[in-house]
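User: Can you fold this complex?
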Amino acid sequence: MSYALAQAGLYAKRLFRYRHFWVHLALSDLRARFRRSYFGILWLALQPLLLTLIMAAVFVFIFKQTFADYSVYIFSGMVAWDFVTGCFLIGAMSFVGAESYVRQVRLPMMGYPIKAMLYCCVVFSLELTGFVIYALLVKPEIFSWRWIYLIPFFAALFAFGAPVAIISAVTNIKFRDYQQSIGIGLQMLWYLSPVFIMRSVFDHPGLKAWTDINPIAALMDLLRLPLIEGADPIVGDYALVAVWAMGLWAAALFMLVRNERKIVFYY
Amino acid sequence: MRPMSPEPSEKRGEQGCLIRFDNVVLRYPVGPFVKGSIKSNLFRMFGHRPIEDGREERNYVTALDRVSLTINRGERIGIIGRNGAGKSTTLLTIAGIYPIAGGTLTVEGRIQGLFNIGLGFEPDATGRENILYRGLAMGCMPDEIAARIDDIVAFADIGAFIDLPVRTYSSGMYVRLAFSISTYMQGDILLIDEVFGAGDAAFQKRARARMQNLLTNAGIVVMVSHDMTMIRETCTRALWLEHGQLKADGDAETVIGQYLAAAG
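Assistant: Here's the predicted assembly.
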């Protein structure tokens, strides 16, 4: 046990030693995405905003909400949703796209999916900034001291996202079908989670059992209650995300320990 | 049943300067393992073991087969052998890229690998940004790289292109930059796979001088080449690999003679 802990400590130390590499690579991916684009990283705020406006224009009639209320609801959901899907999709490409490094230098493999998550963190913070500006313009009364609860929300989101990125990375390098199929899975999750569909729908008896175990629903609650509803977050939601995060971390570490040295053979 | 190979063990450190292979086995997976066949994984999940029906051989190529050798500080080693004999694999194993499947591997010293130097460029990033990324991947700190970046840029000598994306470079510029980045750091153990002719005549002259400097200052040099003249000029000892096994190990002139005689 102490040997395993010592090894884990050495691994973490090596991961930290290359911290500048992971950060620079994440920023390089971001620059590459918007190179030669006129609006550049502004797109990160514009994309969810435009999608929000389009969806809100239609769905306000279904959910019987005011435009301001509903657009703020969707935009906030979209910001968190983009982070989670980014961990799945960009995480999936993190080993596949790192061939040139993996075949040249031996670095701790966990760094590549963590780099993907860092990329998602930057995107998330820029989207969230876009949301805050929009929300304060259309619904300034939502601003409250409860926004301090965003800090534990960030911790919960990152604790959930990191193992997702690791699991996606290992699965996709071994089974390239993963990359194709995960899109369908995420599409299902999009409809089965309160991203754009009103939260109250998911309290329907037919959906409640699922909602009670859905970590995306818990994350959305942890974000929206303090951010747009001026309420305290629910401890049960933290507990649910923590249970999911622990399970995912256990699976991610198990997969990484088994495959760390074998990944170079899958290219 | 195949005899079990001993539990693999790799010991690495940055102190000292030593490479020791003790019965090292390296198996390179091919077939279903790397294709990620869902079928083979499902079969395995339900207890199917290909080894039991003798099919395991098709899933692995034994790239290094019980290789034992010791390389001490000051030695200049040339690895020779036919294509597919395991020469480059040996370098990548020393560098820690490939995991061993059996035996004990001890590597002490800071490794500097000059293999596939053109790999690892971010095509959309500028030459200057790529210098930073490559340096960070080699374990340097940003301030170390900042202190040396002017030298690297001057050595590559590609003018204003250094601030343009690497995808706009000619193949010559690409190699010049790659060579300049890969050789600016001095390692204890220098691993070279097929020394390259980089750029035009003027650049080649400077590149040769730099290589000579690296070769002189490295604690250990392990070089893979099909150029016997280069091995003779550079190396004091040669290893002849054949089908992953060490066929001969000794003074460079003698081993090259044996190899050339066998090759006809």
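Chain A touches chain B through 27 residues (CB under 8 Å). The first helix of chain A runs from residue 2 to 17.
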